[in-house]
Backbone:
């Protein structure tokens, strides 16, 4: 008689409103995992995926969400729990005692804090020999003024702990800029003066030329079980932000930098998935660390399209039986594959065509005709894939497009 295979544990995905959540649903569902997705709104594209076993709308508040997860655990029995956003991970980490029915596939509070707080990340990077851009954390406006005379402009401003800073800024009626470019000391100090009543200031970081280079890992017991890397081709906004088009890069490139990334993750005692993001200057062959992302990242669909299905690999590692081997399982993947996030990619094109002066990084130069032709020609590129659209599961893309058009 043929031995029966053990049933796959169900998986609960908190946050199927983005391409990240959709990629997790697809990766697990393709391998036969029963996936239960929780969405914030009925417009969530993940609700339309054919790989979703059951979709639910999220409760209105934190307590309701926790109760919803407890109810699912009681109904499903043992299950894996995926969380995507930093806010949700913080919420769940604060109530782990209520999640005993789950195998948790997100970092614990200590590890998450070590990458959310950029000061802690850069300190670990220094120990691991990872290059970082020159960074100043002023405690007072006078300190910022003194540092301004020694900085190489332009500079980029970002908050060391953006989640905490966002709360403080909202209370003070101030906007949170994820990144802010300043091109001289006068512009820098004028921007920083608004934070004087708070007594809190963003990090000041010298600008690094080049493009975004991401190195991605699934870590377990200090080993990299799977590795992938890509370069950012386009971003929204154009000067830096969300990746709107990226390309997979072969593992025979940036090998020395990847070893430093591994050293950094070991210094952080990292477990699970992580993205180590750099700004890479191909002219000087130099890289500078931007951040470590301790959760599933925005360009996850590219890795899955290329052949490294991090959600499924993380699930397999989390559900391995006691005596099962946990040796690294590096997946071969296709280099040179591209992936586009169509709605922000279109917003990027419109910004470059209609408002090029609004691009904050004045060092960037674009050809309007070249950008338009490239945008159209990429629809015919055989190596192009998409964050949301796939021929095998097209409904999430059309659901998202329909709701975008309705809002518009």
Residues:
């Amino acid at each position: 008689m043929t031995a029966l295979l053990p049933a796959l544990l169900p998986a609960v995905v908190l946050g199927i409103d983005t391409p990240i959540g959709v990629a997790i649903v697809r990766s697990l569902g393709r391998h036969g995992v029963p996936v239960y997705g929780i969405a914030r709104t009925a417009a969530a594209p993940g609700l339309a995926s054919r790989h979703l076993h059951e979709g639910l709308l999220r409760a209105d508040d934190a307590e309701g969400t926790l109760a919803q997860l407890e109810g699912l655990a009681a109904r499903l029995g043992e299950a894996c729990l995926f969380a995507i956003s930093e806010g949700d991970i913080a919420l769940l980490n604060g109530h782990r005692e209520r999640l005993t029915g789950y195998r948790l596939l997100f970092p614990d509070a200590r590890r998450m804090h070590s990458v959310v707080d950029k000061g802690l990340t850069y300190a670990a990077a220094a120990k691991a020999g990872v290059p970082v851009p020159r960074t100043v954390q002023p405690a007072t406006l006078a300190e910022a003024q003194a540092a301004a005379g020694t900085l190489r402009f332009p500079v980029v401003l970002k908050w060391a702990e953006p989640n905490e800073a966002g709360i403080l800024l909202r209370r003070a009626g101030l906007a949170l800029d994820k990144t802010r470019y300043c091109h001289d000391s006068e512009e820098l100090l004028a921007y920083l003066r608004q934070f004087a009543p708070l007594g809190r200031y963003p990090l000041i970081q010298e600008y690094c030329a080049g493009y975004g280079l991401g190195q991605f890992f699934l870590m377990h017991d200090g080993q990299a079980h799977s590795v992938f890397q890509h370069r950012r081709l386009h971003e929204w906004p154009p000067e830096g932000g969300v990746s709107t088009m990226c390309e997979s890069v072969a593992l025979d490139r940036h090998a020395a930098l990847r070893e430093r990334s591994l050293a950094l993750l070991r210094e952080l005692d990292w477990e699970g998935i992580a993205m180590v993001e750099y700004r890479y200057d191909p002219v000087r062959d130099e890289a500078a660390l931007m951040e470590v992302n301790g959760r599933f990242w925005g360009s996850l669909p590219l890795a899955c399209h290329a052949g490294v299905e991090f959600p499924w690999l993380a699930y397999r590692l989390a559900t391995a039986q006691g005596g099962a081997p946990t040796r690294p399982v590096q997946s071969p993947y296709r280099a040179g594959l591209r992936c586009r996030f169509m709605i922000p990619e279109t917003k990027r094109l419109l910004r470059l065509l209609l408002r090029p002066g609004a691009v904050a990084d004045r060092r960037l130069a674009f050809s309007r005709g070249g950008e338009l032709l490239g945008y159209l020609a990429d629809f015919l590129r055989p190596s192009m894939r998409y964050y949301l659209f796939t021929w095998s599961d097209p409904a999430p893309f059309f659901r998202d497009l329909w709701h975008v058009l309705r809002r518009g």
Remarks:
- The chain is about 35% helix and 20% strand.
- Confidence is low (pLDDT under 50) at residues 1-5.
- Residues 62-76 form the longest helix (15 residues).
- The first strand starts at residue 11 and ends at 14.
